[in-house]
Amino acid sequence: MRHFLFLLLITLSLSGMAQDFSTIQFNQSKNKITKNGMWVLGGWGAANIVGSGIGAFTTTGETQAFHQMNVGWGVINTGLAALSLAGNKNAKTDLSQVETVKQLEATKRIFLFNAALDVAYVATGAYMIEKSKSVDDTKRSDQLSGFGKSFILQGAGLMIFDAIMYAAHTRNGKRKLYNNISGLSIGPSGFYVAVNF
Fold it and tell me: Sign of dihedral through CA atoms 170, 175, 177, 178?
């Protein structure tokens, strides 16, 4: 029983130490970065819906296909931004240091993974354009080429967005989190926090 009480006392002490430098303030700043990014993504999506929505009805051929695909991308990006903004409203900020680091690293991995997907979108667009050259049907060729150009534009735009978001979260973590945690080391298989008694 004494061992249990000793462990409980240590655990409570460590949880208090975890809040010393205010993980709450860090998590608020992390959530703000994500929120601002989602407003940008939502704005980009809305601009695509409106601008290319008009273009889809006022153009023909390859240009019309380009605008049609941009509208699709706009709907997806706006929807993802709205979902993220709604989830961000209820995001917890009173996390321990370990939970905070885990959440930050997970957020960074999401943007890094998305950047890799963006490369695939650009490559898919290039493939579609190349494929359009070997299609005999003009309508189908225009559609493939227009869709391909949209994939390249959207993939490149999202790649820039994801790279900026990754860099912003990395910089914020270095300045406001990792510099305030003593005994933190990050290795290839994860991170470790050493606690001195």
Answer: positive
